[in-house]
Amino acid sequence: MRTRWLPVLGLTVLAPVCAEYLWGYDNSTGHPVTLLGNLIVFVPLYGAPALLIREVARRRGLGWPGIVLLAAAFGVVEAGLVDQSMFSRDYRDIPYWSEMADPTYVAPIGLSIFLAVTFVANHVLASMVGPIALVEGLAASRGRDPWLGRPMIAVATLLYVGASSLVYADMLDTEGSAIASPRQLVGAGLVAVALVAPPTSRHWPPAG
After folding, report:
1. Count of CA atoms in the C-beta half-sphere (13 A) of 31
2. Which of 7, 47, 121, 197 reaches 20 to 30 Å from 15, CA-CA?
3. How far apart are CA 148 and CA 165, in angstroms?
4. What are 49-72's pLDDT values in tens digits?
């Protein structure tokens, strides 16, 4: 099949904008040139997985429950394996980070419950589900169709892997070493697999 370029481009850009820019939390806010430049990384980091999650869900008839579960798995991978921020109590020396992490920090597993829930929920709602719903609505009759040809599925996968590798390398450079322990990485990986397994193990009836 041919790639549906207009909705693909719309979702590719909207996902990172919703994920990173609408919150206005970073010092790049208010600097248009910096914001545009950051899209070089953010488009493959958020736009590519948004396309892939939507494509898997629509091709397999998973409906919105499947999209939500796949998006949650993405959130766990992103915050638990890639930038590992959910395991940090002082990420990038951000002044207010410990205030968010410490009240719900569970020492035996080295995890802030608040950060874990917040990051995964934000990735589900802001990074994936919200942009997908908006672009599908604008796509009208094409909204529930597959949008990607096989070559673009491969390209999107490679772009996401590449962007994730850059973020991981930057985390290592900034923090000096990996934040998460091997046990934490295994735990995050198992949670991600558990979230992916239900929607991909069988066909669900389309849920709209």
Report:
1. 11
2. 197
3. 23
4. 999 999 999 999 999 999 999 999
What whole-number percentage of the chain has pLDDT above 70?
Answer: 91
| Residue reference for tokens 């958020």 | 46
Strands 105-106 and 111-112: antiparallel
Domain that holds residue 15: 5-199
**In this structure, is residue 205 part of a structural domain?**
no
Closest by CA position to 201, among listed 70, 77, 81, 75:
70
- Nearest Cα to 183, choosing from 93, 94, 84? 84
Specify if 206 maps to a domain: no
Task: Name the strand (E) or helix (H) holding 36.
Answer: helix 32-42
Is 112 inside any structural domain? yes
The answer to whether residue 190 is domain-embedded is yes
Q: Does the model's pTM come out above 0.90? A: no
